[in-house]
């Protein structure tokens, strides 16, 4: 203590702001750029200078030093410039025109107590920002910006005990890009940056430590003294060394702070070291290791979130709906992770600004391209090659992202000299472009486009099935964001999504036909954020969508074909929603986020309503007539409120409890008669017979951090009540079916479960979770053919009670890390044959009640190694190799069980997608 | 029942995975844990063809047992059919669980029929009424070269696919189920007169008295073949695939016949069979149709909850049989038919039978091949000079590929 006081007294007497040391320096310069001089000093004395390049770009220096003390050297160099410096042991901080005062915090506190006038003085004099050097913690941090005490606001306007609002932008220091979704917090006050990196935090006046974190970026902190309302921008550094910092990072503190339950942010970097099948890093696949997110089987498309059906997830890419998120029918997601920024996964507590699906939202955003310099990233795995480029168009203002991914399986197929493979074609590709223009601090425009395509051509093994199949997603978005002032911003976006598929069967010339399906969605959204200052933050807006669906057409191919043309009448509908929500901080401990979304849907003409006998099952035999609707007629309209509510109560610094309730309505249904989502599923609209699905979810959780957030734990319990889930009569065929109501069944569902989750940060990082989850459906129609399992609740196809996920990564060195995954889940339900009989000379199996049995449990372990080169972003390119072994135990996990009859004997078969361990090597680069 | 992996999607997945890692696999799985559900099955069929129509009543059997078990038959029931004019046709039980109509019974097109059953414990069952719609004639039966791919193991099987055309398909119910019976005639070129008997030490040649020159091999459909003309513009059915015959089936065939029976069935029956067809195509992929119990048109009058399997099918039937020489097959298939008797021919040999099989008359370096070739041969005759005549065993004894006795219909129709 005495040392500090002595030091303080010494500092206060200094006329030049700097500190004496014994280092001496020699050098001779003639009109040399100051940066070069700095580099020379850095080299000779192992010093580090901190500065912004543009401050010294134009400066040169001429002069000689010979064993000159460093403080004198610095004074000489910057004499006559606007540059001021602060020098501390081996570090030199430069500022442009701002004086630096080093006052140890404790000393200033002491001084403040004992002689307030003196302590105030430097601030009064400098008026601007005041840098204060603090000794505490100096040895723990690499970045000394973290140890300065910044003053925010004007000391003159300081009012003790009152609170003020601090606003600012969080940016990536290497690209100048704003960072969306960064968490800015102090104590238990937190804010998340918006799309333009803007945050607003209300704090009591006085001393705070502001923490900023975002996955893929180095966590940083700033010490501030808040005097009054003021602006404070923070630059974050890319966490290049810690490529593997995982989710834990993003949700640090968010675990307990965030008001909503069940929301997680996943950054692309997180998926890099998770061993993936065939080496395709895949952000959506990583999501399936989160508690409550499951798939039906290995390589199955579609997610089941907390017992929801696979069509109940809203996938958004840059705000446009994605109708089929899978390549290769489910093995890979349609997104090239290199071009993605990240993804928000919401499985409960869904904000009022999202709607249209019952179970979850996967909000995926493309990277905002680098505006400073060209970067190229790419990789080669066993399935694809991919390349992503970020190109500045107008430096610091506009830039372009272009990304593409292609399979080369076709080429492999061509080279295989085997007649059975010769004519096969299997390939997929996807492309992303994004143009981002930061017009000025207030206005920003971004345009993005997306295209993906899958094509299959197979030698047909029978005459009866199709031979060509292709499907494609197309999306485009335009978005204009505008900030009106520090507390009010808005965005306007327009989007277009299209999903089509087509298959052809041309094996039999006379019956050759093609069949297609397509859905188009036009969307517009206007969204406002208004910060009413503490304690209310409002978000409100409106959204409108139009759907145009071609439910199916069949057409003959070739002049020989006699196949008839069928064209189902197109469907069209409009969906709209108004929403408003308020983030209300009642006090330091209790925070609420409540909102209301009111959605409506209209099924539009032209169209035909089939009429059926009142007291008979709907089928072609009971049809009594039809009503024809003209274009633009409102055939059927549905609407209803969707309440969203979330509350968080901080129990203490390290724990909180949360509660959320939300209701959602869904007007669009994927008709799927198979266990998983398939590319031939048809999205159809609610109509006069198919009612909207409605879901209510209540979720309660307890969250606790240990060891200063190194460990995050949570327990969440949820219950869901669903109505009008769409299912089908047994054996129904819905392709080219104009009367969906004759095969569809609707019934209530219920899901409940508990999720335990543990996440760890540090060199050994990763997450572990266990979920117990059940989900049931009831199909109890008035007639036999509309009733399944006697009308009682039965487990859905995706009911998997026990799930364990472990994803871990250990950084042995900064360049070398190992990872390990473990997955366990209960086998999914399945319908088994329970009897055998012969009819008309044909042997037939009779089946049990639907989903009465289960396939065997699933267990899988993966291991991976990642080796990096050139891991400093500033030093040109860097690359990494990853080697992984998927399913290292080689366990033959059942994908399904099925039965064949052979001469009257039933043989059960177990089908495994991966019956052995799968080693993969992939190479990734960035420069 | 076919085991074809018919599902395209899964084919793709397996293919992709196999291409890259050869990792997917299918293995057998024990079915012991599955319980057995005993349900009544009604296999009943009447048509406008004059014959004794049958109704079979039995229970399902556990999946790990064989279908053909007599003890599952439901005996002692009263079974009758009524038409929409209340005419009653009684069926009598001639073997356990199988009930026949009078042999002069034929349904009348335009009439509707329902099946009634009263079991010996007093339970009553009834089907819905089904109209008999006569079936148009099959216009044409023809074949075309086709390669059937095996179960994903890249085996291919060349042969011929038989198709039919029906010009006036819209004159029937438009929904059809097909049955086929095919017959291979086998007349061997070297019918055996003698045979060699091995007494443990050596062969002795003894006369053979039987007539094994001419045989017939009959096979029947064992899977559902369905077609509908509702989707076709001109009301015709064209290129309906009926049956695939592998080229190797014709190795010793001298003449071939195929009969196709077309049954004009109700839309309800069609959709019932279609579900069965879909479930039987199951191959374990996630894209399989959701399976479940398939209930037909028979209900229990005493217990509406009781699920009765099977269907009372009422059909108008028309049959067509064609006879084909090998030259009538698609010429493209001929190179895949291994004509055993032409390839092997007959051999005469002067030495002992033992020497023949040891091929001692052949150069030593060729002997191995010749020994294995000759192992296919059998003696069929002793020549005039006492030499032994050998030929491929399929070419001296037709019973190896067929059965004796010409079918009643052979070349009469």
TrEMBL record, chain A:
Pfam families: CarbopepD_reg_2 (PF13715), FecR_C (PF16344), Plug (PF07715). Its main location: membrane. Residues 283-357 form the TonB-dependent receptor plug domain. SUPFAM superfamilies: Carboxypeptidase regulatory domain-like, Porins. Residues 1-18 form the signal peptide. The keyword Signal applies. GO terms for cellular component: cell outer membrane. InterPro entries: Beta-barrel_TonB_sf (IPR036942), CarboxyPept-like_regulatory (IPR008969), FecR_C (IPR032508), Plug_dom (IPR012910), Plug_dom_sf (IPR037066), TonB-dep_rcpt-like (IPR039426). PROSITE patterns: TONB_DEPENDENT_REC_3. Residues 28-93 form the Protein FecR C-terminal domain. It is found in: Cell outer membrane. It is a multi-pass membrane protein. One of its GO terms (molecular function) is siderophore uptake transmembrane transporter activity. Keywords: Cell outer membrane, Ion transport, Iron, Iron transport, Membrane, Receptor, Signal, Transmembrane, Transmembrane beta strand, Transport. Belongs to the TonB-dependent receptor family. This is TonB-dependent Receptor Plug Domain. It comes from Roseivirga pacifica. The lineage of its organism: Bacteria, Pseudomonadati, Bacteroidota, Cytophagia, Cytophagales.
TrEMBL record, chain B:
PROSITE patterns: PROKAR_LIPOPROTEIN. It holds the Pfam family DUF4249. It comes from the Bacteria. This is DUF4249 domain-containing protein. It comes from Roseivirga pacifica. The lineage of its organism: Bacteria, Pseudomonadati, Bacteroidota, Cytophagia, Cytophagales.
